[in-house]
Amino acid sequence: MILKGTPEVHHIPWGFTTRLRPGPNADGELQPETLVLTEEGSFCPLLGASSRGELSLGPALELYEKDAGGVRRAFQRPLGTTSSDPVFVPSTLSVFFCGGHAVYRLHGDNTVELVAGHPTEAGDEDGVGTNARMHVPVYLSTGSGRGGQQEGDLYSLVGEINDRVVRLELPAAWQVEPSGIAAGEVAGAGAGAGEQRVRVTTLPFSAPDEAWGLTHVTWGGPYGSLVLATSTALHRLTLGGEGPGEGGAPAPPAPAPVLLAGREGEEGHVDGRGEQARFQDICGLTVDNSGNILLADSGHGTTVVRQVTPDGTATTLGEVDARYQRPAILPNGYLALSRKDPPSLLVLDLGLKPTPLLPPAPPAPVGPPRRTLHADMGALLDAQPDGTADLILVVGGRRLPVHRAILIARCDYFRSQLEGGFADGAAPELSLPDANPAAFELLLRFVYTGAVDIPPALAPAVAELADRLLLPELCSDAQAVVLSGVSAETVVGSLLWAERLGASFLGLLSSLKAWYLKHHEEVRREAGASLERLCVESPKLMLELMDGAIARAAKRQRTA
Hints:
Blueprint: E1 2-4, E2 13-22, E3 30-38, E4 43-47, E5 56-57, E6 64-65, E7 83-89, E8 94-99, E9 102-106, E10 111-117, E11 127-128, E12 138-144, E13 151-158, E14 164-169, H1 178-182, E15 199-202, E16 211-217, E17 225-230, E18 233-238, E19 258-262, E20 272-273, E21 282-287, E22 293-299, E23 302-308, E24 313-320, E25 325-329, E26 334-339, E27 344-349, H2 373-382, E28 391-395, E29 398-402, H3 404-410, H4 412-419, E30 429-431, H5 437-449, H6 459-468, H7 472-484, H8 491-501, H9 506-518, H10 520-526, H11 528-537, H12 539-559
Parallel strand pairs: 6-10, 28-30
Antiparallel strand pairs: 1-27, 2-3, 3-4, 4-5, 7-8, 8-9, 9-10, 11-15, 12-13, 13-14, 14-15, 16-17, 17-18, 18-19, 20-24, 21-22, 22-23, 23-24, 25-26, 26-27, 28-29
Helix pairs in contact: 3-4, 5-6, 6-7, 8-9, 9-12, 10-11, 11-12
Organism: Edaphochlamys debaryana
Pfam family, one: BTB
Protein name: BTB domain-containing protein
């Protein structure tokens, strides 16, 4: 499954991460959001990354500067710098990423702040916050904090040939307690008292060779280990000796990295254990839930996906015909990799298990579970028929027991039908003969619970039905699903559909027009027949789009 470079992925995808943000439900339960970071500093949501189905890229997030003096100022990366390697740190509910010679923090409210180094000033100076200097930090990775209980430190390769590792100690004031993480206390992350700056320290060793990958694993010591990848070998560095010595004494030297798999300077694609294994050109590492390392091993126009277990045994999992790098495991278990030329994403279903985003849940308290209105109302709907319903809805031949009072309180259409003076308002049954049964079941769940997951295939039917039954919030949610799944093959049909439905769909129609103008050449190339349909069914819309495409092309020529 490959997502080729479209205008949304016009720049090189230079890393993946999945963060947690409060969802739309009233209880604020945390929901995963997978982000793709491009080299020019845009974060684009990877829609569908939490389910095993089709994937698509959403529009880039609108990012703002943190603490801009009360002004909502758009975040701009310094000219000449590139962004890469985002990583989510659950204990801070934040994403950290590299930019130029610096490291930034992306907060849950999509504000960005510089936390270490200077984006355009290279150097080799340990220090605190923006006083530190680094040379192009890359392959940012998260590891255990001082107590080994929460992820609280970051590690990065630095230097002209990526031969050194720095540790970025995150302030304790940024940490959220595990109970707060589970509750989604985004506002509390980083709001505590105490030191608010990152401390940058160079670890006292050098990589065996120019390194092309870095990741943290939980095995090998009380604080885990770092695994460094050169082109042809993996080396493991046990953590724990780089902290302050006892009583303030100088820290003991960190142990030297030890060979885990492969051999320096000897290329090949050979499975085996330890020095028996051979790698061609390693370009990125990630770790699964079992502590196994997944890596992209490129060479001779192909990329071989390899797995290395903690004992150093290398196994080939698959091969693709192109050079890909920077692997990451998505929440759905897919392995995602990025390609530089042309910019594209590769997604492989290898049945992997990602590392959990949250720490293990504490033991369940004795007594009944916490009750929520959302869950109780959903349970009430699922329990039907249980003798409590006082109305039957007949939809497409299906008979659905429901509660009259809930429908009246939650939906203006049902209020008008059931208490608005209609002759059949007190009848025990109400028919909706023209409603799509599958779409209506989703609508009914929204009426009871206030939220529903809308499959892309049913989104148009749900949007139409929600508009007809006077549920504008659900109609808007369904339209957003339609927009997120638009493609060159479907955009014309969606445009004609939205135009036909009128006023409630004008916002979607405008967004679909904008999407078409960005993808005009792609639509002409891959779905030219649909343009003939557009010309026949809506000549006025066709002319508007053609005029817009011509104007857009002329503007690009003027600014080229």
